[in-house]
Design a protein that fits this description.
Layout (H helix, E strand, L loop, with lengths): L20 H6 L14 H11 L1 H18 L13 H14 L5 H9 L3 E12 L5 E14 L3 E5 H4 L4 E5 L5 E10 L4 E6 L22 E6 L7 E15 L6 E8 L11 E4 L4 E8 L12 E5 H7 L6
Antiparallel strand pairs: 1-2, 1-4, 2-3, 3-6, 4-5, 5-6, 7-8, 7-10, 8-9, 9-12, 10-11, 11-12
Length: 312
Amino acid sequence: MRRTALYSRSTPGRRTEPLAADAIAAEPAAPAAGTPAPPSRRRQRLAAAARHPGTLWAAIGALGLALAFAAGPWQKAAQRALTQDDIDKAVLHTLSQQVLPSQATRAAAAVGPSLVRVEGEVAGKKDKRGQTEMGRGIGTGVVIIDNGTILTNLHVVEGAENVKVTFADGLESPAFIVNMQPENDLAVLRAQKIPDDLQAATMRSTGDLLPGDGVVAIGFPFGIGPSVSAGVVSGLKRGFKSPEGGQVMSNLIQFDAAANPGNSGGPLVTMDGQVVGIVTAILNPTPARTFLGIGFAVPIENAASAAGQPPF
């Protein structure tokens, strides 16, 4: 049986050799009239190629590229840049929807971890059985060095047989006096035990302090606390004479944040959370010993020097 010859596709423009006579004779005869013509070889090759999996995936890839091109970044509308007016509106919206903490709240929170309650046990009068009654004085202190160094008022611990401090986390510890500055009614304490994460307060110079600046007094008035009161600096370089000991102090900060017995030794704090003074006295010409609107604090420069801290 004669085999049909196989041919490769000719290159365009290239001359092909004439077919041999036997090859021409081997070509199939033309279909009879009225019979559908069989598909040409070109269509057969196209159909076979379309059924090939590689062709299908290539078509999918081409479609994906076309879609990506159509949705490319150069086809997107340019985003409008934010303006200051947009930012102001967003801030106003936030303020209208959320209540932010006050300056006094933030100031108290900044110093809160450094606040301590100071108790001095003082021998009092003897009872009917001849036994000495022990009195307890309560004041406030503030940690200025994270090794347990605390500033307070001298009159809070003076004459005390035992001194105890309670830190912000509830830890109680005996403490002893390491230095005194009687002219400024200051005492420096050192706690025997301290919390692992004890924080020292941040101190700030009073050099730029002005009347009208907001301040916060934090302490344990009448043993209640920690208590927070807010006010302003009423004056600077004030003098005060203690009605009890007759001691005269000078260069004091006058303030109107409420302070009462028990606030002594506590920090006077600016609204940015920094200590500028140690509360030491209130002015009250009556025997009530309550606050009438004038309190005094020792500038922190004097207090820091009592603890051996370098000046600002």
